[in-house]
Write a structure and sequence with these properties.
The complex is a heterodimer. Chain A contains 9 helices and 27 strands. Chain A is of the alpha+beta class. The radius of gyration of chain A is 25 Å and the shape is globular. Chain B is mainly alpha-helical. The chains are: A alpha+beta, B mainly alpha.
Chain lengths: 426, 270
């Protein structure tokens, strides 16, 4: 394998974690940010040092701000999501600009530690696939000098899936589950491999549990007792009838679960292997990133989870003298990265017609984007650009742009855009 | 049944077609040009420039190699063009058959007839300067005895028409009188009369002194009639229509019209 870093970047709303892989290692390693209580976590906060062009992040940012050495912005991703601004010493910075400095300073820890700046792949893992945040993360990372083709984003669910599938087979031969307890609440993840399909399907899902509690209650004895009861109840209710091969625990709330969750752990450990994994999502992201460096996947599955689509979209085209099927999206593709852009010349067609087939459904449906708004021209002298992109796992947009036919029939740039919702029968 | 043709790459540096003053960016446009403007496609169309465009700009090395091999082994441009159109798949089988028929028809013509067909196409496309060049090349080679004199009369008559469109009335008149010198056709002399009236040129005595006054009066009446009809038709003329548009559209339309005229003037200076 080429020399360089493969980075898994768990980017949560309030904090982030980094795991990385360099050639020669067997397992991804976790980046240590400090010698504090939780050395693998850094808060999503940034401070600009007063009078200097110096950016500080995490704990250092808080300390500097506390001593009056600068202003601080925390919960950075929330600010990015709102396309907000912050003002430091009379200068207004966009949230994306702050995100850029934050990512730069965060990755600097890793570059210094490993004494290399060469990034082979960087995979961000986020809980919510918010396009505003995703676009900002990608643009900021590109500004750091990392090529677009090396930057990827997946959901926490998918990170979890990759993490588990990278473990011994016996740990995922039946269902595998994860309880992630953090400041954002309690999330339950479940992974199942559906055999008998070609290829087999690895399906993972996430459920936000209303039973989740604030981590502050763990500070008192009564709170710890209540937390234990809540989690024991969850496990009892959710896993009682399931054949679970492995259970994982992660998140800041779980790192001390041996102190507060005696009953919870006792119930969970019955006939199951249970692991507490530091940086589980970041490690999963590293495993997922490694896939981009392989010629053939080591995971012989179709992947279905949050962030992945469950449809095949295609259209029949003529290329040269041959008829062929042009695949535009396939089951298991990451919706955020599924983008197709190509040019067609419709010949005796009044619309762009695509075939959409959902996983598990026998009959595909046909969708049409009408071309009647385009300027009227003779047959075969209208070249159109067709762009397909997803807005979420369940929604995609087809944009058709008139390009005319060179200088014979100049294009009008008229656009026809249609959004389709998967599962609505249209 | 309909279909969708998947397009290839668009060239960064286009292939320039001087005859049409147009740039071609895709293989589909190239095929369209060959099919629809066949008379303009000269015998030297397949050359290094074309092959470079297909190979390097369109990234279609395979087709470029095939053309090169095919053309060098047979030296038959028509068959090579047909192969290109067939391989690209832009045209239907029926269209390819029709193209083949046109190639066969074209092949039966002499080289002079092909040049004239090209010049006639240029006239239709209002590329008068280029048409003049083609007609002149034919007129200057009138020593060729394989082509009938009537053919050269047609060439000179068309040349006068092209000069007329360029407002070069002296040259237009010379062409017509040149024909008249050879065939003494009254129709040609009448045309020369029209040119003189249109341009305000005095009727050359050597040609018109022997024409009876009654005939001249009839020609004049005929000219006026045609002029009246032409003026009426001007109501639908695109130039006049520009001035009937709203101010914003008029400005844009005028700019486009003037650009077109400037382009034509540049062509005349070439």
């Amino acid at each position: 394998m080429e020399e360089g870093l493969i980075i898994g970047f768990d980017l949560c709303k309030d904090f982030c974690r980094i795991s990385y892989f360099v050639s020669g290692q067997e397992e991804p390693a976790d980046l240590v940010f400090s010698e504090e209580e939780n050395p693998y976590v850094i808060q999503n906060s940034i401070c600009r040092k007063k009078g200097e062009d110096v950016w500080l992040i995490g704990q250092e940012a808080y300390e500097t701000a506390l001593l009056g050495g600068g202003s601080i912005v925390d919960k950075l991703l929330r600010l990015v999501s709102r396309r907000g601004f912050a003002t430091f010493e009379g200068v207004q910075y966009s949230a994306e600009e702050l995100l850029f400095h934050f990512l730069q300073e965060t990755l600097e820890f890793l570059f210094k530690e490993k004494k290399t700046r060469k990034v082979l792949e960087i995979m961000y893992s986020v809980q919510e696939l918010d396009t505003t945040v995703l676009d900002a993360v990608i643009r900021s990372t590109r500004r750091l000098g990392i090529e677009r083709s090396r930057i990827h984003i997946i959901s926490h669910t998918e990170s979890y899936l990759y993490y588990v599938l990278s473990q011994k087979r016996e740990l995922w031969s039946n269902i595998s589950v994860l309880y992630d307890l953090s400041g954002d609440g309690l999330n339950y993840y479940e992974l199942e491999v559906l055999r008998g399909m070609q290829p087999n399907v690895a399906r993972a899902s996430r459920t936000f549990l209303e039973e989740g509690f604030s981590l502050e209650i763990l500070d008192s004895a009564a709170g710890r007792k209540m937390a234990d009861n809540i989690m024991t109840g969850c496990v009892d209710r959710m896993l009682k009838k399931k054949l679970v091969s492995s259970a994982y625990l992660s998140g800041r709330g779980m790192d001390s679960c041996q102190k507060w969750g005696e009953n919870f752990l006792r119930v969970l450990c019955q006939r199951r292997k249970v692991f507490f994994i530091e940086n589980l999502f970041a490690k999963g992201a590293v495993y997922a990133a490694c896939e981009y460096l392989r010629e053939t996947s080591v995971y012989p599955f179709s992947i279905m989870c949050e962030g992945r689509i469950d449809v095949d979209i295609s259209m029949e085209v003529t290329q040269g003298n041959n008829q062929r099927v042009l695949n535009l999206a396939s089951v298991g593709n990451n919706w955020y990265e599924t983008k197709e852009d190509f040019d067609l010349i419709p010949d005796q067609e009044t619309s762009i017609r695509m075939k959409v087939k959902r996983l598990g459904e026998r009959t595909p449906i046909m969708i049409d984007v009408p071309l009647k708004e385009l300027p009227a021209r003779p047959q075969k002298v209208t070249r159109v650009n067709v762009a397909l992109s997803f807005l979420s796992e369940k929604m995609f947009t087809v944009t058709v742009t008139d390009k005319g036919f060179g200088e014979f029939f100049p294009g009008s740039d008229v656009q026809v855009r249609k959004t389709f919702t998967i599962g609505n029968g249209n | 049944m309909g279909r969708y043709i998947l397009c290839g790459k668009e060239a960064e540096l286009p292939y320039e077609v001087d005859e049409l003053d147009i740039r071609i960016y895709t293989i589909e446009e190239l095929c369209y040009y060959i099919y629809n403007y066949l008379p303009l496609v000269g015998d030297d169309f397949i050359d290094e420039r074309l092959l470079y465009f297909i190979r390097n700009e369109l990234d279609m090395g395979e087709i470029a190699d095939k053309i090169e091999r095919f053309y060098s082994s047979r030296s038959e441009q028509d068959a090579t063009l047909q192969m290109l159109l067939s391989d690209v798949g832009y045209f239907s089988d029926a269209e390819l058959q029709e193209f083949q028929n046109r190639l066969v028809y074209r092949r039966r013509k002499s080289s002079q007839e092909r040049i004239k067909a090209k010049a006639d196409s240029l006239m239709k496309l209002k590329r008068y300067q280029s048409a003049v060049r083609c007609y002149k090349s034919l007129a200057n080679s009138n020593a060729d005895t394989r082509v009938s004199r009537e053919f050269y009369y047609e060439v000179l008559e068309s040349l006068s028409g092209a000069y007329g469109h360029l407002c070069e009335f002296d040259y237009a008149l010379d062409c017509l009188l040149g024909i008249y010198d050879m065939n003494h056709s009254e129709r040609i002399l009448k045309k020369a009369y029209d040119v003189c009236i249109l341009s305000g040129t005095e009727l050359p005595d050597a040609y018109f002194s022997k024409v009876p006054d009654t005939v001249l009066q009839k020609w004049q009446q005929d000219y006026w009639n045609r002029e009246t009809v032409a003026r009426q038709n001007l109501d639908g003329d695109e130039t006049l229509q520009i001035f009937l548009k709203d101010p914003d559209t008029q400005k844009k339309a005028l700019a486009e019209y003037l650009d077109g005229r400037k382009e034509a003037c540049r062509g005349m200076l070439e």
